[in-house]
Structures are given as structure tokens and as C-alpha cells.
Amino acid sequence: MKLYCILLLLFSSFSTLYADQAAETILAHVRHGAILQNNDLSGDLKKEGKRHPIHLFLRENDIQFLFNEGKKQDGFHMRLGESQFDLFEIVQRKVIPMPVDKLDDPIKGTDVTYEDLAMQFLYWPDSSIVGEEKVKSQNCYKIRLENPDQKAGKYKIVYAWVHKKYNALMKVIGYNAQGKPLKRFVISELQKSGDMHTLKKMEVSTLEPDTNKVTGVTYLEFDKPRPANKAEKPLR
């Protein structure tokens, strides 16, 4: 009986390890598809009839988000590593480290925050596959991720549904420390760029934690990726 318990424990440990490695492999593919190296993207954040243009410049290990409102331009900058990234804000065309308490600030009064656009959860080291489910009739892996820094950002646990064939996000729900939902992201349309699939349309819903009631909705939509304009380089 003792030997059986030891073998069961070892099998469980190996299974968990394998699941964690499999989850990280899937997330690595998602990160690669989200980056779309050396491309430019333009799109809009839309809430209650108001439209806010957004531009992305993707240059190898640099991703820059810019928001234009008339002559005013602001945004933020991500410098990517293999398993982590650094986040900066752009103020008067200068790049400075982004304060942790700014991560959950709404962008242009929408339901989308800096934390949402950066998708930091894709880099959290504690991840595991917890099942398979369908999202919009598409087969997906359901992956659980836990925030390694409980002081950074609102999301302490995130569940992400990843398309099994295209390795692209299809749905994300972020939870607080009490396990109550704060935000839901549903990808309604993907687009192909080369041999990768990435976001085209997404609905972002703010949720009331205790009732799960939707209190706000913002839509994010991107045009087809364009080859990088070599004359435009990200601020550093």
C-alpha cells in the first residue's frame, strides 16, 4: 500500500510537470503570434460611440502602442525577453519606466487598461492546462495562470482559452485575489498574417465581481497587419 501511494505521488508529480511544460509551450506560440515581428498595426478602441485610434509598431523585441488624439500623442512601450518583458510609458516622446500602480488605469476612458493591452499574463511562469472547451464552436485548451507578483495589476488569476489549431487566444477572464471575475475578453474574429493567426476583433467587458454583471463594454478592432515602415522606429 505504501509503495502504491509513492508511485501515485510520483505519477501525479510527473503529470503536473508535463502539463505545466505543455502549457508553457502553448503560451510561447501565443506570444509569438501576438508579436507578429516587423509589422505595423492600426485599429480603434470603441466605447459608447466614441472612437480612439491605436497604432502598434512591432520591431523584433520592441512593441510600441501609440494613441493619437488630435495633436496629442501618448502610449507605452514593451521590451521583450524570452520569458518576461519590461514596460515603459511614453511621455512627451520620452520613454520612462511605467509605475506599477498605472497598470490598471483605463485607456482613454474605455474598459481597456495598460495591463490588458500588454497581456502580461502570457509571461507568468505559473501556468497549467486545466481542460479543453469550445469557444465559438472552436476547440480550445483552457489554461490557468497565476500572477507571481500579487502587488502588480488587478488580475491575480487568469484563465485563457487558446485555439488548438491556430495557437491564438479566443477568450480570457481575469480574477481578483478572492477568485471573483473582473474582466472578460472574447475574440470574435481572427486574421491571418503569413502562417500565424492573430487578433482582429475583440470585445472587452468589465464585470461586477459579486454579481458577474457586465458594467461596461469596449471593442478593439485591428486592420490587416502591414510590413514595417523602416523609417518609423520605436522610441527608446
What does this structure look like?
This protein is α+β, with helices and mostly antiparallel strands and 236 residues long. It has a single domain (3-227), classed as outer membrane lipoprotein receptor (LolB), chain A, CATH 2.50.20.10. The protein is built from 2 helices and 14 strands, in the order H-E-E-E-E-E-E-H-E-E-E-E-E-E-E-E. It has helices at 2-35, 114-118, and strands at residues 39-47, 50-59, 62-69, 72-80, 85-91, 94-97, 126-135, 138-146, 157-163, 169-175, 181-193, 196-208, 213-222, 226-227. Strands 1, 2, 3, 4, 5, 6, 7, 8, 9, 10, 11, 12, 13 and 14 form a 14-stranded antiparallel β-sheet that branches. A hairpin with a 2-residue loop joins strand 1 and strand 2 (50-59). The longest helix is centred in the first third of the chain and has 34 residues, at 2-35.
Kindly report the average pLDDT value. Answer: 80
Would you tell me the structural class of the helices and strands?
Answer: alpha+beta
CATH C-level class? Mainly Beta
Q: What count of helical segments does DSSP give? A: 2
**CATH architecture classification name:** Clam
Helix content: 10-25%
Q: List unreliable stretches of 5+ residues.
A: 1-19
The percentage of residues in β strands lies in over 45%
Please give the domain count.
Answer: 1
CATH homolog superfamily: Lipoprotein localisation LolA/LolB/LppX
